[in-house]
Amino acid sequence: MSDLIIGEDGLARPVWAAADPLLRKYYDTEWGMPVRTEQGVFERLSLEAFQSGLSWRTILAKRESFREAFAGFEPEAVAAFGDEDVTRLVADARIVRNRAKILATISNARATVALREDAEVDGGLAGLVWSYRPAFTPAPRSLAEVPTSSPQSEALARRLRRLGFRFVGPTTLFALMEAIGIVDTHLVGSHRRGSSGIWS
């Protein structure tokens, strides 16, 4: 069985994005497209951390609730969250009520704000993450060929941990790199392959 499915519109998509309308829209319009703003990268990093151990479909369905609960993922606003906010978030059934991940998101917001003043980092969180773009992108022909980490995601994980970030393992960061266009893991033959404009 092929890992690509031709839809009613004649376009080829991977199995995971072919049937569910929410996943299909995300795949067709957003996944793998460049995100270069601090707020955009912080949101994706936060959602990838919340996704750990869960399905991306679950996170995507709760995305607007996450945005409302976390002040639109504006780093300064989240960095200012205190104990009352943690209590509020742990009680919010619309999001993933994992205390460790909630605390990590707040901690990561503070680390993101601190990066703005780091003389060794050009462009804050977004600039740092994009600086780990590899020289080549994978070109998988099947889902089995899609990597789950890379030397760059491993190096970025080490760097972010040193800077105080949490829930930033190599697998989580490779998923982030896929989501924001740093690598293109659209299957060869997918109608989205190369759509980011980053890789020919």
Short descriptors:
200 residues; mainly alpha; DNA_glycosylase; Adenine_glyco; DNA-3mA_glycosylase; DNA-3-methyladenine glycosylase I; two-stranded antiparallel sheet
Could you explain the architecture of this structure?
This protein is mainly alpha-helical. Helix content is 50%, strand content 3%. A two-stranded antiparallel ribbon has the order 1-2. Strand 1 and strand 2 form a beta hairpin. Helix 3 packs across helix 9, helix 3 crosses helix 11 and helix 10 crosses helix 11. It is globular.
N- to C-terminal distance: 28 Å
Low-confidence stretches: none
Mean pLDDT: 95
Structural class: mainly alpha
Q: Label the overall shape.
A: globular
The strand order across the widest sheet is 1-2
| Largest beta-sheet characterization | 2 strands, antiparallel
Number of strands: 2
Secondary-structure element pattern, one letter each: EEHHHHHHHHHHH
> C-alpha Rg, in Å?
17 Å
Relative helix content: 40-55%
